[in-house]
Write a structure and sequence with these properties.
Blueprint: H1 3-14, E1 25-28, E2 40-48, E3 54-62, E4 71-78, H2 87-98, E5 103-108, H3 126-140, E6 145-154, H4 156-167, E7 172-178, E8 191-192, E9 195-196, H5 200-208, H6 221-228, H7 233-238, H8 245-248, E10 262-267, H9 274-282, E11 287-292, H10 310-322, E12 335-340, E13 354-359, E14 368-375, E15 379-381, E16 391-394, H11 415-418, E17 422-425, E18 433-437, E19 440-447, E20 454-461, E21 467-475, E22 495-500, E23 504-508, E24 513-519, E25 534-537, E26 544-550, E27 574-589, E28 594-607, E29 610-623, E30 631-642, E31 645-657, E32 661-672, E33 675-687
Helix pairs in contact: 1-2, 3-4
Length: about 700
């Protein structure tokens, strides 16, 4: 629920960029105490694609120290507006790599930011990946290029880096991808684990894609046709409620294994963390994987820490693949994960207790699988039980608030969610157990209606009764036989559901209990299923949990030493003014059955004496007795004051449901200098299809 919020807020906190008064080519000197660094320039340009559309690019380009010196190119391509929203943050990374002998090319996706053309039909369109191939070819032929190109990025630009790498452009020699995905239906922000997730990101991106083209911000018929009047993507995504060609056409999970070297970064508190493991298991090219304790962020600032300076490893990676420097980067441990050694539930940790495990490969030597079986009496044991009496679970649609907006971020005590779940606890542990990997789960269930959702959570119960979330997953039972051919449940008929719980690490300490919690709701992460009623779970040989157990290792014995984070250069052309949020709030009324989740934030920044403001508020509601009538409503507003001219774009969205349909309304209102220039509303009634 926080993909774009987290990235934008960090980027804005870091710096802000090239608008209005900044010259097309400005020179910034390298740090005087290090005369090996390069001076570099910022240069705005465009590159023309094969269909004539020109894409906006900003180069962070080092100045040659000798005649004819050329440099590799690192490309990042995003729709997140390099000239305003991401300006300050882009500078931190562009300056870092440029000062060390790389051209960083930051490109706006066609139809967004400063690039020409209409907004694409959706994320990661064929046109976008075609453009990436063409950009790589053109960048490799620049007079200042050595002919070798890398792609990199976090989130969106990790996704398209992986997709472009699959096509194997000749000049693309390696990638770095943080928090990406290989499977757009199961492991992206729209259908988490195959279940509908209405994320504030959808509202954010539909608003920001409707802003006028930078740097001139012209409001004319071309702008209306290409941006403002384009139907919001949220309608497209809601019309694609099941897996299929729409999601798979660029998803690399359904293509040949990766053949371009990849440095992959994940976070234990990020919803996309599984991608790094998925790629590493099948890739034919060298892969480095690092998974830390943080959220949707780069390792030097991700929350919580410990943090490290990943850019030092990135330079060695780029030096090897793009400059041909033999530096031993492939001789280092290829797999690194932070082992969380267990902690009480908390939403404000700065540093997670634990240590780094650095290894040549996964699974670790000495790994094993421990199978545990839910039993009658809320017990989780090693002995496989005979078939026992089914246990009934009443459906409470508002269950799930304690776990937050997606499978990530820090969480408080899970007891409130567990109160409306089936819970199974092991005996208190006599010795510590450490796990690393993706726990596997199988449930034998039945239901009184054709459709429910199942949510499973792996938890740690401390001796004082406090419950920490370790990891979780959602199951959409319509996909139990086939993701491509969903099928309804047959009421009162037993069936098996299988899933992998998202990648995790954790030490269960002596005296603690391992808990499996099972519910039929994960609100607001998953849109509630429509029918009040109940489900049953059947303990027995077909209901089990497999834990990926690894040898316990004491802190201080890891094989790698990680450099501390370095301070980043701050952009000389702007600064952040204010940053409030995001603030999340959960409210559940046990008497009425009402559950509400809200998030609000606002931020403002300055670029070359121009002022930019963005604010947003979102709300999700459901009632246990009427789960079909869940709702989402949101507001987002961007106000840009550029050379005394105020551009104000406000959007509102509402999604409501009943047992059969989603009712969607999205409104855009554009004002210039306080006067309404254009207003447009889209509405649709979209049939529910196993969601």
């Amino acid at each position: 629920m926080r993909r774009l919020i987290v990235v934008i807020l960090k980027r804005l906190t870091m710096s802000l960029f090239l608008l209005g008064g900044l010259a097309a080519c400005s020179v910034y000197e390298a740090s005087p105490q290090d005369n090996e660094l390069y001076e570099f320039s910022l240069e705005n340009d465009t590159l023309q694609m094969k269909d004539g559309v020109r894409l906006a690019v900003t180069y962070y380009r080092p100045a040659a120290k000798k005649p004819g010196e050329t440099f590799p190119v690192i490309m990042e391509m995003l729709p997140y507006r390099k000239d305003d929203f991401f300006a300050l943050g882009d500078y931190e990374y562009g300056s870092y790599f440029a000062k060390r002998g790389y051209v960083l090319a930051r490109v706006d996706v066609r139809g967004t930011g400063g690039s020409d053309g209409p907004v694409p039909e959706s994320e990661y369109s064929a046109a976008e990946i075609d453009d990436a191939e063409e950009l790589i070819a053109q960048l490799s032929r620049k007079s200042w290029s050595n002919g070798k190109v890398g792609m990199y990025g976090l989130s969106w630009s990790a996704f398209n880096s992986l997709m472009t790498a699959h096509r194997k452009p000749a000049a693309l020699k390696a990638i770095i991808a943080a928090h990406g995905s290989t499977d757009l239906f199961y492991n992206d922000v729209h259908y988490i684990d195959g279940a509908l997730h209405i994320d504030s990101y959808a509202h954010q991106i539909d608003t920001d894609n409707s802003m006028p083209q930078s740097p001139d911000y012209r409001i004319d018929e071309t702008y209306f046709q290409n941006r403002f009047d384009r139907e919001p993507w949220i309608f497209t995504w809601l019309r694609q409620q099941q897996d299929g060609e729409f999601w798979r056409k660029e998803s690399v999970a359904f293509k040949e294994p990766l053949e371009v070297p990849a440095y992959l970064i994940g976070g234990l508190l990020d919803g996309y963390r599984d991608f790094a493991v998925d790629v590493s298991q099948t890739a034919k090219a060298p892969v480095i994987v690092e998974i830390g304790p943080w959220n949707h962020a780069w390792p030097e600032y991700g929350v919580p820490g410990p943090n490290y300076e990943w850019r030092q490893k990135a330079l060695r990676w780029w030096d090897y693949w793009l400059k041909g420097i033999e530096n031993g980067v492939l001789e280092d441990p290829r797999r690194m994960a932070f082992m969380r050694t267990g902690h009480a539930p908390a939403t404000d940790l700065e540093t997670v207790p634990g240590y780094w495990r650095c290894d040549a490969q996964w699974p670790l030597e000495g790994s094993s699988t421990q199978r545990l079986y839910p039993r009658a009496g809320k017990y989780l044991g090693e002995a496989g039980p005979a078939q026992e009496m089914a246990q009934t679970l009443p459906y409470r649609a508002g269950t799930g608030l304690a776990a937050g907006g997606w499978w990530g971020e820090q969480t408080g005590d899970m007891s409130a969610d567990d109160a409306h779940s089936l819970v199974y606890d092991s005996a208190p542990l006599s010795a510590a157990i450490e796990i690393m990997g993706m726990p596997q789960l199988n449930l034998r269930v039945a239901a009184d209606a054709p459709f429910y959702q199942w949510s499973v959570r792996l938890e740690d119960v401390a001796p004082d009764g406090k419950v920490s979330l370790v990891s979780g997953a959602t199951i959409n039972p319509a996909q139990r036989f086939s993701r491509l051919e969903p099928a309804a449940l047959v009421p009162d008929q037993e069936t098996s559901l299988a899933t992998a719980i998202h990648f995790t690490t954790w030490r269960f300490k002596p005296g603690h209990r391992i808990r499996l919690a099972v519910s039929n709701a994960q609100f607001p992460m998953i849109w509630p299923s429509p029918t009040p009623g109940s489900t049953r779970l059947f303990p027995g040989e077909d209901t089990w949990l497999d834990l990926p157990v690894v040898p316990v290792q004491e802190q201080g014995t890891q094989a790698c030493v990680l450099p501390p984070p370095q301070a980043s250069d701050q952009a000389p052309f702007g600064r952040q003014i204010e940053n409030n949020g995001p603030v999340f709030n959960s409210v559940r009324n046990e008497q009425t059955g009402d559950s509400t989740f809200t998030t609000v934030s606002d931020i403002s920044w300055m670029l070359n004496d121009n002022i930019y403001k963005s604010s947003e508020s979102y709300r999700w509601d459901v009632n246990d007795a009427q789960p079909a009538k869940a709702s989402y409503q949101g507001e987002r507003r961007n106000v840009f004051t550029i050379k005394g001219r105020e551009i104000d774009l406000a959007t509102t969205a509402r999604i409501e449901s009943d047992a059969s349909y989603f009712y969607v309304t999205f409104t855009k209102v554009l004002r210039e200098n306080g006067l309404v220039v254009r207003e447009k509303t889209w509405t649709d009634r979209i049939a529910r299809v196993y969601q």
